[in-house]
Amino acid sequence: MEVTREPQRVQILSETGLSNVPSPYIQPFENRPRPRLETSDSDIPIIDLEHSTQVRHQLQQACKEWGIFQVKNHGVPMQLLKEIKTVGRSFFNSNIQEKLKYSCNPNSAASEGYGSRMLAKEDTVLDWRDYFDHHTLPDHRRNPSRWPDFPPNYREVIVEYSEQMKVLAQRLLRMISESLSLPPSYMEEAVGEVYQNITISYYPPCPQPDLVIGLQSHSDMGAITLLIQDEVGGLEALKDGEWLLVQPLSDAIVVLLADQTEVYSWQKTSGIGITILHLARLDPGGEA
User: Fold this and answer.
1) Is the dihedral of CA 46, 261, 162, 144 positive or negative?
2) What is the CA radius of gyration of the chain?
3) pLDDT digits (tens, 9 = 90+) for 54-113
4) Other residues' Cβ atoms within 10 Å of the Cβ of residue 170
5) Which tens digits make up the pLDDT trace of 93-109?
6) Cis bond upstream, residue 184 (ω within 30)
C-alpha cells in the first residue's frame, strides 16, 4: 500500500517568516492573480428573502445570468454566523500539535479533518490554504468526536450551523424550483438525500501573494453551496470572461449554484453540496 507523507501546513510555512514562496505553490504565469474588477452592490445580485413578491423574478434572473448571488434576511441567526467565524479562528490560532491531532487522512481524498491538500494530485500546484472539513449530513456521517473540542462550544456551533444551513439550502431549492415554474419539491426530489460538508478555510499571510492562489478556480459538486466570508473577502466569480470580486457583506450569505443545479437550470431556462466558511488573507502581514 502506498503511504502519502503528511503535507506541510501552509500556516506553518507562513509563520516561519519566509521571504519566498516554495515552488510547489507557485502558479504558472497564466494562472497567477491579476487585478480584478471590484463589483458594486448593484452587480452581483443581492436578494432580500423577506420581499416575497420580488424574489421569484430575482432568483430566476440571478440563476440564469449569474449562478451566484447573495441573500439577506435568510433566517440564519447573525450571532451564529459570528460564532462559527470565532470558533474557526480559534482553531487555526491554536497550538500546531493540538491541531495535528485532527489531521485528515493523507491517503484518502477529501477525508474529514485538518488538512491542506483537498483533492490535490501530486503533480498539481498547491493552494495557499489550510482547512478543516466536517462531514455533517446525513446524520450517520456526523461524528463530533472527530472535531476539535476547543473552544468548548466548537462542536455545538458546527452542529447548529449545519442544521441552519440545511434549512436555508432546502428553502432556496424550493424557491428556485418555483422561479422556473416547476413544483416546489422538484429540485429537492431530484437531489435526493442531503449530503453536506462544512469546510472552514484559512488563508495565511503570504510573502508573495502575486504568485499564489488561495483556492484554485473550480465548480462545486452537488446542488448548492452556501458560503460566508469574513471582512477580508477574496472570493471571485467568473462572469462573461472576467473574474469579479465578491464583496463581503456581514449580514449576507453567498449562494453558488453547483454542478447538479446548473444542469437543471439550463435545461429549464434556455445531494445538497458543500457549505463553506472562508477565513482569508493572502496579503503579507494580514490577519484572518
Assistant:
1) negative
2) 19
3) 898 999 999 888 999 999 999 999 999 999 999 999 999 999 999 999 999 877 777 899
4) 18
5) 999 999 999 999 877 77
6) no
Q: Checking DSSP bridges between strand 242-245 and strand 224-229, what pairing results, if any?
A: unpaired
CA distance linking residue 246 with residue 215, whole number of Å: 15
Beta bridge partners of 257: 224
Residue 210 burial class via C-beta count within 10 angstroms: exposed 0-12, middle 13-18, buried 19 and up: exposed
The DSSP element (H or E) to which 14 belongs, if any, is helix 10-15
- Cis geometry, peptide bond prior to residue 138 (ω within 30 degrees of 0): yes
Cβ neighbours of residue 149 closer than 8 Å, sequence gap 6 or more = 155
Question: What is d(CA 66, CA 47) in angstroms, rounded to the nearest whole number?
Answer: 13
Give the full edge-to-edge strand order of the sheet including 68-72: 46-48, 68-72, 253-257, 224-229, 274-280, 196-203, 130-137, 113-115
H helical segments located in 30-74:
52-65
